[in-house]
Specification:
The complex is a heterodimer. In chain A, 0% of the residues lie in helices and 44% in strands. By secondary structure, chain A is mainly beta. The chains are: A mainly beta, B mainly beta. The interface between A and B is medium-sized, with 28 and 27 residues.
C-alpha cells in the first residue's frame, strides 16, 4: 500500500488560515469517511486532532477543521498560532482493512 | 483515562527478533470496540502503520511487513506485544503503541520507544 500524499511543507503567518491536503485513492480516502489527522511536535507522540473526516475530539480547538472531496481530504487551521507549528499527518482506513498514513507536512508559522 | 506504555530492548542485533510490549492502564484490552496498534517512525521520517489486533485476537498487518510481524494479546497482564523478525538497520525507528477506536482514529498513544538495530 502506498502512503497518502501530503505536501512536504506549508507556512502561514499568525492569524492566517492554512490548509493541508491529503490525497489517496478510491480504495482508501475516497472510499470511506475514515480519515484522521494528527499533530506531532518534535520528540513527542502524535496527537489526534480530527477523526472521521471532520470530527474533533474533546479538547481540540475549533480552529482545526477537516473536510473531504473525492480522494482528497483536507485539514484547515484558522487563526494560526505559534503553538500550531508542528508536523501533521493524515491517516485512512483502506479496503484491505489495513491503515495507511500520509507522508507528513511540516507547518511553519512565520 | 487510558494510558499506554511501551517497553522492551532499545538495541537489537541484525537478523534477530525485535520484541516490544505495550502495557495498558485505565482500561481493559478485553473490552470490545478497539484495535490495539503498533506504529513506527523512522528517524526524521513519517509514520508507518505496522498492524493491530482486536480483542478477539484477529490481526491485520501492513502488507510490506506481514511476513515478519506478529502482534499478540496477553489479557491477563492487560498487555499486547509486537514481534518483528529478521530485523535490519532499516527497522531502526521509534515504535509507538496506540489504541484505534475505529475509522483510523488513534488515541491515546504511548510515548514511543526508540529501537536501534546494530551489531
Amino acid at each position: 500500500q502506498s502512503a497518502l500524499t501530503q505536501p512536504a511543507s506549508v507556512s502561514g503567518s499568525p492569524g492566517q488560515s492554512i490548509t493541508i491536503s491529503c490525497t489517496g485513492t478510491s480504495s482508501d480516502v475516497g472510499g470511506y469517511n475514515y480519515v484522521s489527522w494528527y499533530q506531532q511536535h518534535p520528540g513527542k507522540a502524535p496527537k489526534l486532532m480530527i477523526y472521521d473526516v471532520s470530527n474533533r475530539p474533546s479538547g481540540v480547538s475549533n480552529r482545526f477543521s477537516g473536510s473531504k472531496s473525492g480522494n482528497t481530504a483536507s485539514l484547515t487551521i484558522s487563526g494560526l498560532q505559534g503553538e500550531d507549528e508542528a508536523d501533521y499527518y493524515c491517516s485512512s482506513h483502506t479496503s484491505s482493512s489495513t491503515q495507511v498514513f500520509g507522508g507528513g507536512t511540516k507547518l511553519t508559522v512565520l | 483515562q487510558v494510558q499506554l506504555q511501551e517497553s522492551g530492548p532499545g538495541l537489537v542485533k541484525p537478523s534477530q527478533t525485535l520484541s516490544l510490549t505495550c502495557t495498558v492502564s485505565g482500561g481493559s484490552i478485553s473490552s470490545g470496540g478497539y484495535y490495539w496498534s503498533w506504529i513506527r517512525q523512522h528517524p526524521g521520517k513519517g509514520l508507518e502503520w505496522i498492524g493491530y489486533i482486536y480483542y478477539t485476537g484477529s490481526t491485520y498487518y501492513n502488507p510490506s511487513l506481514k511476513s515478519r510481524v506478529t502482534i499478540s494479546l496477553d489479557t491477563s497482564k492487560n498487555q499486547f506485544s509486537l514481534k518483528l523478525s529478521s530485523v535490519t538497520a532499516a527497522d531502526t525507528a521509534v515504535y509507538y503503541c496506540a489504541r484505534e477506536g475505529g475509522g483510523s482514529s488513534y488515541d491515546p498513544w504511548g510515548q514511543g520507544t526508540l529501537v536501534t538495530v546494530s551489531s
